[in-house]
Amino acid sequence: MFEFYMNHILTIITFLPLLGAIFLLFVPRERESFHRNFTLALTLAVFILSLPVFFQFDASSAAFQFEEKADWFPSLGISYHLGVDGISLLMVMLTTFLTPIVILSSWTAITRRVKEYMIVFLMLETGMLGVFLALDLFLFYIFWEGMLIPMYFIIGVWGGPRRIYAAIKFFLYTMFGGVLMLVAILTLYFLHAKQFGFYTFDYTQLNQLLLSSKAQMWLFLAFALAFAIKVPMFPFHTWLPDAHVEAPTGGSVILAGILLKMGTYGFLRFCLPFFPNASHDFIGLISILAVIGIIYGALVSMVQPDLKKLVAFSSVSHLGFVMLGIFALNTIAVQGSIIQMVNHGLSTGALFLIVGMIYERRHTRMIADFGGLAKQMPIFVTFFMIITLSSIGLPGLNGFIGEFLILLGTFKAHKIYAILAATGIIFAAVYMLWMFQRVNFGPLDKPENEKLQDLNWREIATLVPIVLFCFWIGWYSKTFLGKTEASVEQLLQNVKAKQERIISLEQAMGSGQVKWVLNQVSEE
Amino acid sequence: MEIVLPDIQLRTVLPHIVLVIFACALPLLPLFFRKIQRDLLALIAIAGLFLSFFFLISFWNQDLSGFGGMVIMDNFALAFSVIFVIGGVLAVLLSLNHVENEYLNYGDFYGMLFFALVGMMWMVSSTHLLVIFLGLEVLSISLYVLAGIRKMRADSVESSLKYFLLGAFATGFFLYGVALLYGATGSLDLVNIRAYFARHGFSGVLAIAGTALLLIGFSFKAAFVPFHMWTPDVYQGAPTPVTAFMSSGAKGAALAALLRVIMAGLPIGQPEWNALLWMLAVLTMTVGNILAIVQSNVKRMLAYSSIAHAGYLLVGVLAASKLGQTAVLFYMLVYTFMNLGAFGVISYFGASNREEHLNLEDYRGLGYKYPFASLAMAIFMFSLAGVPPTGGFAGKFYLFNAAVQAGYVWLVIIAVLNSVISAYYYLRVVVNLYMRDPERDVVVPKAHIALSFALILAIFGVLQMGILPAKIFHLFQYSVLALK
User: Fold this and answer.
1) How far apart are CA B84 and CA B253, in angstroms?
2) Contact (CB<8Å) B420/A182
3) Which of A195, A260, A325, B295 is the most buried (most CB within 10 A)?
4) Residue A505's pLDDT is what?
């Protein structure tokens, strides 16, 4: 029994939520508390079931672990292939960890259409886990696009006044990037067959492909566009504020906590190893966009009157750091990026929860409507403060580790970007602390705020686990970084080796030929 | 003089004969048995379809041919015929939910539907241009009648007349093309035509003009842009089950015949002709999708969307490979399921004793009032938009995959961007169903059990082909081997 479980652990955690969603379809709508309890229990169970993935994970190996592979559509080279390595491990854990918290946070915030809400959240969890675990590009794409449907409903049905606009914008933006990636996937598949003589969508097989730098450039652009929209990187970020502001609290938490990470994960998983030369060529462009994102996001956050919008724009800034770290292409920075992905999921997720809590009480998110909450809601403000400090990277809390590693690694690679990006941290301190001050300190001069209740046990229960992890990562990040190190080193070595190999192959062939695939035969 | 009779082999047309017998019997039954229930009539019709289906299946892999080689029941013809029969079954099921008090003679309706089916099956099961023409005409004339079958309604009659006039034009083009090709090559059989072109090369005014006219004829029937003008009005005016049947079946038949003609005879495959088809595909997708965006009537919107889908199918035709043909077949089947399913929901929501609810605005908030039908509609819409894990995605994936392999990367990029455009208007339906509160109370009469059955069948088809497509795909892959 246990052995069977360990052999299929990834499939089980991925599809258990979907099964739960199908089950809920047949439960009458009126039994709202059953829907809530069932979903919470199920997502908690998924979290507990996913723990062995973390604890049994062999940190010394860079290979994919807990792999599962089965034929799905053999004649087209499509297989059902799941696996986890150091790069996806933390993302998977973050997903299973945040989902029950989100369900718990929606306990009283969602009062209408509870059944449907729980169903789409369960579907969403399956989609998110699938994206991080899929090792077949066809399967990956199915999860990547399929996940849009539940998120679209979450924004569109339970969102704010402009929810429909935001939902459609979110859907079309992401789909636009996605379909171009699909063309790139098909091209890759075709080129692989040209080089190796058989068709496959398997990640490890496609990774063997040696593409000419011209081919790499086009394919990189198509993949990068899809991921950059998801991250979102600077010029492609315009869907994000709308989606975040209109989404219900749970939706925002998942959106910031996990969905955005799919973009950065995609860069690490696909762009770097598949297109090493193109990645190298685009370091400048992407780093500049990342730095612009960091500073622009911070500046826009500073002037936001709306708490939720402020947090949304701060995501643009934080994700800029992650992108910068990934494209520094050294172990320290990439490790920092991965841990920063987790950090952002925790602290920004928690910030959205906090904004949601205050919104549920006051039905406004305007900073100007608050002031002096510290006297009225001490527990709330304590949590708020810890999370704020974690978000701006105070040493001892999680944010510091990520930003420090990223800046250290980037400084080694490109000094100027690191210096510019560091200003972003200062800005972050400005907008976060200023916001914190205006909301929580000063006189309690609004009569509506005098009646505010402090957090109840359920709300505390949603924040405590996050805060615990903020401290854990802040004090002993080795628990997590240790798991990722081998994979990251291996990844960067492969990227470098492949890049040099392609350069030498291209030089050997001479510059006259323009080819898409480099034949290994031509080596001799 | 001795007249040599060709080898007739009546067995080969058994599926057609069955349908013709039923087509004649179904309009007569209500005359003899005045009390006959329409449900019973529908049941008899479905029995007929199953009989025909059974014969089709039993012919699998036998490569039958009859009438001196003019009728060919190879696996390609069988696969398409089976898809048409499935479409016919769904159309019969949908028709039962039609507005109660509206005058509709079910006997006539099923009779004409069956004749249309026979025409479609003929179109795909021959390489002889005259037989293809015969099928085309049988199909078209039945459809003219079907479009105007609600004879008391002005829009229905308008639809019928418009379709008839433009259809006659198309027929003229087609026939003219056939005549010119005969003049150029001295044969009407595509096999001989190909042999002729192989010997003498594809040149001369007659051959080129003939091919072009033939292509125009097909374009009219399959509603490629710029030959699509009739589609929206006709689709809107025709009764919903007929629209459903027309937009998937008739279009499929025209495309299948086109595929057969391209593969079997005409040298469309040369750069100039490919460029022409390329343009047709791009125009058809783009114009169809863009015009669909501005529609407020759901039926009209789906009419334009069906134009766009013909464009996607043309991408597969253009790929001109076994993979592309398989993908066309696969997409045809998915499209039959999702399109007929969507029209099924439209006819369900539209059916009301006083007025029809066909506007997007009427759908507001129905998602919570009629959860099953709305869920079905949402699934069909996501599938039409090509979002995984539905069959619509799988179908597009195979089409585009084939096109990329054939080197049409730019065409595929245009096609996928078109999918994004189309997602916008498909999503609007979902938005109205689930995300907006109703302005007025729309009450829908209880659905006929047959409709629920049809919807379940369609959902099953769409999801099955999206999640576990391998078996069906292999069958189709095998069946296109018949195209040489």
Assistant:
1) 8
2) no
3) A325
4) 84
